[in-house]
Specification:
The protein has 12 helices and 13 strands. The longest helix has 22 residues.
Length: 335
């Protein structure tokens, strides 16, 4: 009987193969569960609004309980079953079926990884360790607890950061000081541009790239590489999370451009996105470099580097059609 469930769960599969387990114990828990539906586009917002409206109907037909969720996570990741949450919870199993997150409502998030996701999640743990030591001033992050790491899997708990945070996404102009501090959290290093370009393994790029782009050096530092509106929450200080794609030797402006480009490309053509960047963000990027004591005239080189890195990133993640959008913008930017 539904009334006998300790934690009423509604489950569904996304079109990309991910599995969602949403608590409908109360409307508050339903709203919290829907945080797993991330996105900034009109379609994503509409879908989320419809889910809010459908809550009474979902509440009547929910079938799963928290026990089945724990079992499905264990089966998908080939790990021991997670402990059953004591209170209301929701969960997500990734499309790759080797990563899962349980949201313990009112407490924090528990992350599990195995297989190909192990390396990325271990990187995330390393970032949390670094943040704990550096204690950044301009943004907040979760505290990590209960780390369990073996050769086959890893899981840990992320406690809520203190204070109130909203889903409303901060404007990029309010985050530039955050990006500057994040970049500088690792010891300063200089990297050869020639080695950086060669390391991308894009031989077709070298034939069209200005020779000046391969000369000289650039500082490299901590770069999120998945810095998008859905990985930042507003608050007294912005809350940053989801550090699995972090590079400890990334280029300036990678996160700056990624915050606006990636979301825009899901809704607009490459030509429109490129025009938007040049019109609205080019000067802001130049000011960002000036504040980092770097030549403002280097915006174009850092922009092209960002596009080339994204081509490699999306091809590696088996999304060649999306990668092609970055190919077009890079070709136009080099003309």
């Amino acid at each position: 009987m539904l009334s006998s469930c300790k934690n009423n769960i509604f489950s569904r599969s996304g079109r990309d193969g991910a599995s969602f387990f949403l608590s409908c114990r109360s409307f508050r828990d339903w709203r919290i569960s829907l945080e797993f539906y991330r996105g900034v586009g009109a379609r994503a917002k509409l879908k989320k609004a419809v889910c809010f409206i459908l809550y009474p109907w979902v509440r009547l037909f929910a079938k799963d309980d928290i026990l089945s969720v724990a079992g499905e996570i264990a089966d998908a990741l080939h790990i021991p079953p997670p402990a059953i949450p004591e209170g209301p919870a929701s969960a997500l199993i990734s499309m790759t079926r080797d990563k899962a997150v349980i949201h313990h409502h009112g407490r924090g998030y528990e992350k599990f990884a195995s297989g190909d996701s192990l390396s990325d999640v271990r990187t995330e743990l390393a970032v949390y360790e670094l943040l704990g030591k550096k204690k950044p001033e301009t943004f907040q992050f979760s505290q990590v607890d209960r780390v369990v790491s073996t050769a086959e899997h890893v899981n840990f708990f992320m406690l809520y950061a203190p204070g109130e945070h909203q889903d409303r996404h901060p404007e990029l102009s309010s985050l530039t000081h955050v990006l500057r501090e994040f970049f500088s959290l690792t010891p300063p290093k200089m990297a050869s541009w020639r080695e950086l370009w060669d390391g991308l393994d894009l031989p077709e790029l070298l034939n069209t790239m200005p020779s000046a782009f391969r000369q000289g050096q650039t500082p490299v530092g901590l770069v999120h590489r998945d810095f998008k509106p859905w990985n930042v929450k507003n608050g007294g200080k912005p809350l940053l999370y989801d550090f699995e794609s972090v590079s400890f030797a990334g280029c300036p402006l990678e996160d700056f451009f990624n915050y606006v480009v990636d979301p825009l490309l899901h809704r607009h053509s490459p030509a429109k996105v490129l025009g938007n960047i040049r019109r609205r963000y080019w000067q802001m990027a130049a000011d960002f470099l000036t504040e980092m004591r770097l030549p403002a005239g280097e915006v174009r080189r850092y922009w092209c580097w960002y596009l080339a890195e994204r081509i490699v990133f999306w091809r590696r993640h088996k999304q060649p059609e999306f990668a092609e959008n970055f190919v077009k913008m890079l070709q136009w930017s080099l003309d």
